[in-house]
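Two records follow; treat each independently.
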Amino acid sequence: MSWSRLARDDAQLRVFDGGSGFPVVFQHGLGGDEAQVRGNFPDEPAVRRLTVECRAQGESTAGSTRPFSIAMFADDVLAAADAHGARRFVAGGISMGAAIALRLAIYHPERVAALILARPAWVDTPAPANMRPYAEVAALLARMSPSEAKVAFEASATGRLLAREAPDNLVSLLGFFDRPDPALTATLLGDIAADGPGVTGGDLAAIRVPTLVIGHGVDFAHPLAHAEALAARIPGARLAVIPPKATDKAGHVAAFRSAVATFLDQILPSLESSS
């Protein structure tokens, strides 16, 4: 396995390239990093995994280009695939990473051999209601100190709702208040919460590659209804409903890995024979 740096505009992106076999480009969620992917990705079957830590996340720098967007991150991922010689690959990701993968499949269909959409936070519209808590965190960070903003968010109607109905989401959101650059974090969260993958229902219906969608309940940020909608609208897509992360983290991770491993086991023989 190896790490490298990729210059994009004035940003420096950290890229993981590990394993051998058919390439799988798998992306983290908003505010995540390669470790999030590593913690959920199966050890088998043998594949070559590439993960780009998106701008202002992990150990990648932010650069000066604004706004941050899913389109920007998708372009960065494609540039990393080019730099690493991955001409055709399985595209996948978690949450924001799923949106990046979906955009790649629609805008660059010649590059994407299969698709894995895990815990999707978007379907085909920008700024969905489930992303509003991220926008609220961004707004608080933009006008308060991190400690004051954290207290205000926990006490807000959204904070109380998440504490009752999606505690795992609340823990994740509270972590943003502890990041080292509050202004940058506010910009990142605000920009992405207002964005979307830039696709239409017609685009979804036109996808013609094997697709796995993974969803679960007890998750305000990643509604099971989003996973169900994508699976229903992408022809031939398979839906895997796994245990909620909030109530059974070990079972969630095991089922996530199993779903991805089973899907890859089923599609890799044909992909490898055609490559």
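The next record belongs to a different protein.
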Amino acid sequence: MSNALRLARGIFGRVALLDMDRPLVRHAHPHCHVLLKVEGADTQFSVGERIVPLTDDSAVLINAWEPHAYAHHDGQPATIILALYIEPSWLGAFRPNWKASGAPDFFAVPVGSATLRIRGLTRVLAEAMVHDPGNADEHERLLADLMIAVIERFAAWRDEPASLRLAASLVVDHRIRKAVAMMRDDPRAVNDMEGLARAVGLSRAHFFRLFEATLNVSPRVYLNVLRLERAVQAVAEGTESFAKVSESLGFSAPAHFSRFFHDHAGSSPTAFRTVAGLRRSDYETLR
């Protein structure tokens, strides 16, 4: 069963070392998202309308809010994947126009050929997370080196000072703004998309067309992103029971929440919480 082996969190976002042997549903993230193979079988992801390979020699590059899925096949061996979910504001501290990593066109293509440096930095970060799980400063330093190498390799950030599409996306129809605000205020209360459309004064069909044209994802995917990010925070911080987290996000039963979390995050909530709180002393005990 797929699970998280290690998790690093900070102002940079999060990095998950995932042991993957089952598919993930189509989903999205509000981050600059990069997937790198550490070891195991070559595999593949669905990004937008394309199936792209994840191998020793390739990196999968996913823009913020871009729908994607892990396209694992039955009987395919497991793959250990370093999954980077990086905050554009953190990248902007390196170069101001790297804040555009939150734009839908930051990576022009969803897959690229990884350099020997990127492959080496991937391995070094993965090993640091395994062998020194509590060393947050070292994880962030290694992640910075890796992301600089990735962006310089795969993003045409020198060509344009900022994304026009990102700037255009700041102008959003007032009805879509209202729908987004309702989702963000209380994801638990939004289950019926037809009711949400009526609440903002649109027919269901027009609401779906306008929402996706504006935000590049469907209303349901957007709602699931909000739920997942809140779930990740609640599970990683370890302050509430899974039943309480499930209830706060609008799931009818904890089992439904656990399945949702596994299908979107690639790990059970239990494994995710365990590795999120793992310290150096815990690792020594486990050995």
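Discussion point: The chain has a mean pLDDT of 90. How would you locate this feature using only the token line?
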